[in-house]
Amino acid sequence: MKTLKTLVLILAVSFSSMLFANETKPVTKASSLSSTISELLESPKFRIAEDVNALVTITFNKNDEMVVLCVDSESETVVKFIKERLNYKKVNSNLYSEYGKFIVPVRLTPNK
């Protein structure tokens, strides 16, 4: 009887370790948010001479709209551009109830 219990325990541990060894990469909401922001910031109307980096702090309201809280960048043109493109844009996600603020790094690169 003791050997049977030991055998069952060994099988259970082996089976559970095989289940957890499977590496599936689920699609996260953050990656879909990042791609949405990328699409909204495509093709600015002004010329960019070199890479411009900014940290954008956003949150979501009850209507699933992005609300830009802060844009940390040296260029006022970039700050205005990001606020115009992202503020109150509808996003297909339920991030309002789950999270508070997001800090999203943004890099604008010149077209070649």
Task: Tell me the layout of helices and strands.
Blueprint: H1 2-20, H2 29-40, E1 52-60, E2 66-72, H3 76-86, E3 101-108
Antiparallel strand pairs: 1-2, 1-3
pLDDT averaged residue by residue: 79
Derived from helix and strand composition plus strand pairing, the structural class reads: alpha+beta
Rg of Cα set: 23 Å
Helix content estimate: 25-40%
**Care to count the β-strands?**
3
* Backbone shape: elongated
| Straight-line distance between termini | 74 Å
Main sheet overview: 3 strands, antiparallel
Identify low-pLDDT runs: none
How many distinct helices?
Answer: 3
Which strand order do you get reading across the main beta sheet? 2-1-3
Give the ordered list of helices and strands.
Answer: HHEEHE
Strand content: 15-25%
Q: Could you list some keywords that capture this structure?
A:
elongated, alpha+beta, 3-stranded antiparallel β-sheet, about 110 residues, 3 strands
Structure description:
This protein has 112 residues and is α+β, with helices and mostly antiparallel strands. Helix content is 38%, strand content 21%. It has helices at residues 2-20, 29-40, 76-86; strands at residues 52-60, 66-72, 101-108. The chain has a three-stranded antiparallel beta sheet, with helices on one face. Strand 1 (52-60) and strand 2 form a beta hairpin.
Give a short overview.
The protein is α+β, with helices and mostly antiparallel strands and 112 residues long. The chain contains 3 helices and 3 strands; from the N terminus they run H-H-E-E-H-E.
